Structure formats: structure tokens, C-alpha cells
Amino acid sequence: MSIEMLTLLFFGTLLLFVFLGVPLTFVLGGVSVVFLYFTWGADAFYMVASQIWGTMESSTLVAIPLFVFMAMVLERTGVAKDLYHMMHLWWGGLRGGLAIGTLGICALFAAMCGISGAAVVAMGTIALPSMLERGYDKKLALGVINTGGGWGILIPPSILMILYSLITGVSVGQMFAAGVLPGLLLMVLTVLYIVVRCAFQPNLAPALPKEERGNMAEKMRALRAVILPILIVVMVLGSIIKGITTPTEAAAVGVFGSLLSAIVYRKLTLGLMREAALRTFKLTGMIMWILFAAHAFSAAYQSMGAQALIEGLMTSIPGGPWAIIISMMVIVFLLAMVLDPVGIMLITLPVFMPIVQSLGFDPIWFGILFVINMEIGYMTPPFGFNLFYLKGVAPPDVSMRDIYSSVIPFVIVEIIGLALIMMFPEIATYLPQALF
């Protein structure tokens, strides 16, 4: 059978089972194993097993359950409530101040947790009702929480970055360092959008009345809320960047920080530990299956020789290397509208990475572009995870249509940020080169 027919049959089978509702991880792993057997025979399974064994020996893998456990504990400590109170006092006097402060809290949560849903749920529960009560435009308030919540996978530590590193072989520490400046850039662009829009449409986000802003003594007391989160961020990121710990060791330090936070907030109970451990166990089990599927897919794809076909098709795109990178970004952007980020990584990275490296582009830089696209996918209709997280905690009068329409201007801001990082790769590559 020709390579063209094999490729068509392979991807056609994948799509059929995905549309039938079978979980993507099992579709990729199962279909890949079947195709491996019929193209190379039973001996091909040794190739998959050896690749998986190599991954299982990686100490980086230990960081995943540790960061997940850290996020599960922090989600229940009450940190978000105190942070919002502090931000309410300090930023509430500005037009759009509550929205800007909410973005700041989302960025802090991203730097503590490494997953997307934590900030969306926390701010959807605390900040959204507060903004709506004070006359904020519904779509502006929803869009801010959706956008800020997505930064959990870009601002390190990030579970998705660890998976990207495991699949592509790049350094986790370099990926973490590369995510810092792009994360700050997206935050600055979003804040600028809010400031400019509120200057022209002040009714969208009115400043709080003077009696709600608090006096200087109250503001200074409220600042204590940021001490613990900043301490955790410094413990995790600072130790990696300074070379004191590996990402895995830093994850253990982060778990210690989250438990310390739970003690300070008097939330450390046997029930909290049990629930956090069970959720961590479930998520880690899912990630192990994801890695199996990634290796099976990669082995099947390479054994069929389909990679050479795809490379040939991609390199024939007119416009040279940059046109190829832009085409990849468009493909990932469209996939992010309908598939989960991990699934997209499994499908695209084994195909894209050899092309990216053969064209001479930095895989760390490409990884940041990829992760930003995944982040946009979290907030993009119809199946963005953040949209459904937010609907689950939003007041009853907030419809799914409100949430869908709220993200449009914020997606445009994110795409502008993505374009800037493409035009100026140093935004992503400066810190990794300087620190490593």
C-alpha cells in the first residue's frame, strides 16, 4: 500500500473514533498499535516499549504529580479570597481597576499552580460577582477571567510545558525560563487594552466609590495576602532559575509551600489531603496514558514513512520557512477550537518538530508559540475548557452566549502578542540563553 493511502487510512481511522466519542488518548494509542502490527509486525512493539521505558526513567516525570498536587492544595486554601480583597482595596479606585487586579491575581495563580482551571474557578467564584455588582460590563468581566485563567499553562511552572519537553526532548528548565517574558508581555497587552477601552468607555468599568477603597492602614494590612504566594513563586521559579534545584526538586519545594499555605490558612485537614491526593492520582494516571499514546503514535508514524510525506507537503508551501511556521500556527489554532491541548500535542508535535528543527528554528521558541496557541484554545469557542469552567461557577443570569462573545477582543489581543513573539523571538529566547 502506498504511503499516501496509509496516511489517509491512518488519520481517517483516528478521526472516525474521535467523532464516535472514544477518548483521544486511547484512540491514538490503540490505532497506532494496530497500524504498527500490520505494517511492521509484532516486533514493532519492542520499539514502543523501549521508548516508553526511556521516558519512565526520566526524573522530570516526577515533577508532574508534584505540581498537580501543589495546585490541588492551593485551590482549597483561601489564598484567592485574600488576594482579591487586597486587590480590591489597592486597584478599585481606578477605572477598570478590579479587572486589572483580577488579571494580576490570575498571573500569580499561574506562577503558583501550573494548570489553567484553578484561576478561572477561583476568580469566577470571587471576582466575577463582585465586578458585576459594581456595574462592570458583563462581557469585560467574563473576558478578563477567561484570559487570565489561560496563563496557567504559559507562566511557569506549567504542566503542559513539562509534557512538551518530554515529547520533544527539550529542557524543562529552558521552557520554564522562556515562558516568563511572553507571559508578562500578554499581561501588559491585556492591561493596556482594558485601560484604553475604559478611557473611551468609562461606563464599562467604573471606579469604586471612595468609601470602598479603604484607608492606607487597611491597604498595608491587606498586602500581607501577597507574601505567601510570592514566597511560593520565589521558592519554585527562583530555585530553578538560580540553578539551586532541578524542575523536579523545585516541584517538591512548591508542594512544601502549598502545605505551608494550607497551615497558615488553617485548611490543612485529612479530608483536603485525601481529596488532593485522589485528584492528583487520577490526573497523573491520565498523563501516563497520554505519554504511552504519544510514543505509540510517534513509532507508528515513523515506521510508515508518513513523516517524510508530511514534511514534503509542508516544505512545498510557498513563502519559505516563515510561511511554514505560520501554517503550523493556523493548524494548531483551528485544532485548539475542537480538541484538548494534550491531544493536539500528540497529533502535531511528532510531525511538526522535525520540520521546525530542519528549518533551523529554535524548538524552545516554537514551544512557546505552541503553548500560547494552546492557551488561546482554552478560551476559544466551541470547546475551550475555560469557557465551561467559568459557566460552572458564574451567576445564573450569565449565559453561554455571553461567555462565548466575551472572549473575541481578548483573543485578538493574544494573537497580537503571539505575532510579536514570532517577529521578535528574543522575547522567548533571551532568558533561556542568559540563564542556561
Automatic annotation (TrEMBL):
Subcellular location: Cell inner membrane
Source species: Alcanivorax xiamenensis
Keyword Transmembrane among UniProt keywords: yes
TM region positions: 61-79, 99-128, 140-164, 176-200, 221-244, 250-268, 280-302, 322-352, 364-383, 403-424
Function statement: Part of the tripartite ATP-independent periplasmic (TRAP) transport system.
Pfam families on file: DctM (PF06808)
Superkingdom of source: Bacteria
Keyword match Iron-sulfur: no
Domain TRAP C4-dicarboxylate transport system permease DctM subunit: 11-427
Chief subcellular location: membrane
NCBIfam families with a match to the protein in the record: dctM
Quaternary structure, from the entry: The complex comprises the extracytoplasmic solute receptor protein and the two transmembrane proteins.
Protein's name according to its UniProt entry: TRAP transporter large permease protein
Keywords associated with the record: Cell inner membrane, Cell membrane, Membrane, Transmembrane, Transmembrane helix, Transport
Membrane topology, from the record: Multi-pass membrane protein
Family recorded in the similarity comment: Belongs to the TRAP transporter large permease family.
